[in-house]
Amino acid sequence: MGKRKRRIGTILFVLLTVSAFIGTLAVKPPDSHESIQILMRDAVLHEVNKISLFGWLEVNPGLISAFSVSGIFLVFALIVRIFVIPRFTIIPGKFQLLLETAVGFFENLAKTNSPHRNRFLGAYIFAAGAYIFVGTIFELFGFQVVTTEGVSVSLPAPLSDINGAIMMGCLSYFVILLGGIAENKLKGVGRTLKEFSLPISMSFRLFGALLSGALVTELVYHYIHLSYGLPVLVGVLFTLLHALIQAYVLTMLTSLFYGEVSEPAHK
Fold first, then answer.
1. Rounded CA separation 152/143 (Å)
2. Residue ranges covered by each domain of the chain
3. Backbone angles phi, psi at 143, to 5 degrees
4. The dihedral formed by the CA atoms of 207, 170, 66 and 75, expressed in degrees to the nearest 10
5. 144 φ, ψ to 5°?
6. Nearest-angstrom CA–CA distance, 130 and 142
7. pTM for the complete prediction?
8. Of 238, 237, 236, 234, which Cα lies nearest the Cα of 209?
9. Which of 51, 46, 61 lies closest to 150, judged by CA?
10. Which of 42, 84, 117, 196 makes an SS bond possible with 80, Cβ 3.0 to 4.6 Å?
11. How far apart are CA 180 and CA 71, in angstroms?
12. What's the average pLDDT block by block, 10 residues per block, for the chain (267 residues)?
């Protein structure tokens, strides 16, 4: 009886999939007010679809995403600090175990790559990794905003905007510089300045990786014959993969260079 139900369910699923595919071939694509070239160019430069910030300034959608993700983190951290952490137990529950695992991973990453100064490093790479991961998957929720042109668009990942990626790279470089100054004073500054291309490489690595996923997803969504089922698979896989890889790469690079410049100088 159970096998028969599963067989019927499989047949129905196949029939529905085939019907949807045939329907996409029979339906005429809708007229779009923007070509795919304009859509993809605006995803990079943000020249057309801008958001009004409190009616005062026109900004890129990525800035609204950055404010939203930052607000989510602040509220979440406040709730955890007030209501969750005081109830921690010796035998952790699921949520406590998840938090301890995440904190322990970045703490071990900091200690492994920077054995001399790692307290602040562990806190920073935890915050940076969490921001990159959550900020990247933020675009999966598809929160809609209305542009100044009256067009509804979904909020992108904050770091798919070149400005956000540059600021993350520069902030990581500044943290590395502080680690060198704290341990080796002027020698630490010299060690850090030798890697002058580091903020550029980290910034464009973040921007290129996250933007590529956004462009591929936008390209798939634009064509109606591909817009049933495939965008879900492509969007989720690209977004999760980039979120995990880029969060790990930036935190690893930051901890490696931080450990290098904060290593005590041998007399």
1. 10
2. 32-261
3. -65, 130
4. 130
5. -95, 140
6. 20
7. 0.78
8. 238
9. 51
10. 84
11. 31
12. 67 64 50 56 66 80 90 94 90 89 92 86 93 89 81 81 84 88 78 74 74 67 58 71 86 89 73
